Amino acid sequence: QVQLVESGGGLVQAGGSLRLSCAASGRSFSAYTLGWFRQAPGKEREFVAASRWSDDYTYYADSVRGRFTISRDNAKNTLYLQLNSLKPEDTAVYSCAASKGWRIRVGVTEYDYWGQGTQVTVSS
C-alpha cells in the first residue's frame, strides 16, 4: 500500500525558511512524478512544484519559483521541499502527491496518491 508521510511544517517569521519532507513507501516510484501542493484556508488546493523520480527535471508554480526548491533522495525514498524567503501568503497545509508516469502534472485530479499534509504558518 502506498504511503506518503509529510513532516517539517511549523511556524516561521516572514523571510524565514523551512524544509518539508515526504517519506514515500509501498512501491517503487521510478516511473512516477511526485509533487507538492498547498491549500490555504478558504482556498482551493494549488500546485507548488513537481519532480520526476527518474531524472532531475523539476517544475514550479510561478508564485514560488526562485524561492522554493524541490529535491529528492532516491536512496531514502524521500521528497523534499525547501521553502526560502517565506511570505505570509505561503501559509497553508502542504501535501505531497504521486502521479503515475513521467509527464509533469499540475492538476489535483491527476495525482493518484496523497499524504495527509503538514501545516506551514508564516507570521508577518
Question: Would you give an account of this structure?
Answer:
The chain has 124 residues and is mainly β. It has strands at residues 3-7, 10-13, 18-25, 32-39, 46-52, 58-60, 68-73, 78-83, 92-100, 113-114, 118-123. Strands 2, 4, 5, 6, 9, 10 and 11 form a 7-stranded mixed β-sheet that branches. Strands 1-3-8-7 form a 4-stranded antiparallel β-sheet, with no helix packed on it. A hairpin with a 5-residue loop joins β5 and β6. It is globular. 33% of the residues are buried. The mean pLDDT is 95.
Blueprint of the fold:
Layout: E1 3-7, E2 10-13, E3 18-25, E4 32-39, E5 46-52, E6 58-60, E7 68-73, E8 78-83, E9 92-100, E10 113-114, E11 118-123
Parallel strand pairs: 2-11
Antiparallel strand pairs: 1-3, 3-8, 4-5, 4-9, 5-6, 7-8, 9-10, 9-11
